[in-house]
Structure formats: structure tokens, C-alpha cells
Amino acid sequence: MELPRCALLWRFGPENDAYPRLAAVAKVFGVGLRCLQDGDLAASVGDLCAGKPGPPFAPLILLPPTPALIVSGLAHETGELGSFLDMVRATGASFPLRAMVTETSAGWTLLQLLQELAAEHEAMTHETN
Questions:
Q1: For residue 33, which phi and psi values (nearest 5 degrees)?
Q2: What would the pLDDT profile of 41-92 be if each residue is shown by its tens digit?
Q3: Which residues make Cβ contacts (< 8 Å) with residue 129, sequence separation at least 6?
Q4: Exposed, middle or buried, 7 (CB in 10 Å: 0-12/13-18/19+)?
Q5: Cβ distance 70 to 112 under 8 Å?
Q6: Where are the domains of the chain?
Q7: What's the CA gap between 44 and 96, in Å, rounded?
Q8: Which residues, in sequence order, are CB contacts of 67 under 8 Å at separation 6+?
């Protein structure tokens, strides 16, 4: 399954000072950016990457405001994903939560993926403290 080249952005958008630099990096890599909203939480990650609209309803749940970057369609094996992430870091954009879309996670809802990333981040943060 070939995944579209996109980056889903949670709690990060044009209001952020680093957004224009992030958009320039995305353009270099041919990656489309999609800023997500609460209404997208019930949509599948794969549908969001494909540019499909979110569902007409969203779960009523509060998530931490931690920004997330969810990348799709870049090859890890060739170093393309690593180069993209290095350039994203150089923009000054901060994404404590990061994920690469896999065939499995493409079927998850955005809510499921964000909850998993938040739990992993929390576990890693407590291990280092």
C-alpha cells in the first residue's frame, strides 16, 4: 500500500511562527501539510492523509494540547524520512509527539493515534526524570 506524501499537524498551524519555514520544507519534499482540528478526531489517519474530509461528528474528549507531527509517504530506508525530520527540527518547530504512518496506523482514528503517542511520550518522559 502506497501512502500519500503528507504531514498531519495537530495543535500546530499558520499561527505558529515556524509554520512558514515548515511549509517551505514540506514543499522541498513534495509533502502536503494538513492542519487538524478537533472535528478530525474520529477520521481515520489514512483518510486524513488522502485529503478526505473529516466525519460530521467528533468524540467529546479532551486531549493534551501537545503538538504532533504525523508523516506519511516518506521512505525510512532511503534516509528521506530522517532528512525531512532533520530539516523540520531546523525550522524551530517543536513536535513532542511524532509518528510515521504505517499500514496499521492508517486504519486507526486520529484519536487512537494521538492517545497512543501521548501515552508513549508520557512513559518516555517519566523514564528520563
A1: -100, 140
A2: 999 999 999 999 988 877 767 777 899 999 999 999 999 999 999 999 999 9
A3: none
A4: buried
A5: no
A6: 6-128
A7: 21
A8: 9, 10, 11, 12, 94, 95, 96, 97
pLDDT single digits (tens) 86-109 = 999 999 999 999 999 999 999 999
- Alpha-carbon distance of 24 to 117, in angstroms, equals 26
Return the amino acid letter for 111.
Answer: L
What does the H/E/C string look like for the chain?
A: CCCCCEEEEECCCCCCCCHHHHHHHHHHHCCEEEEECHHHCCCEHHHHHCCCCCCCCCCCCCCCCCCEEEEECCCCCCCHHHHHHHHHHHCCCCCCEEEECCCCHHHCEHHHHHHHHHHHHHHHHHHHC
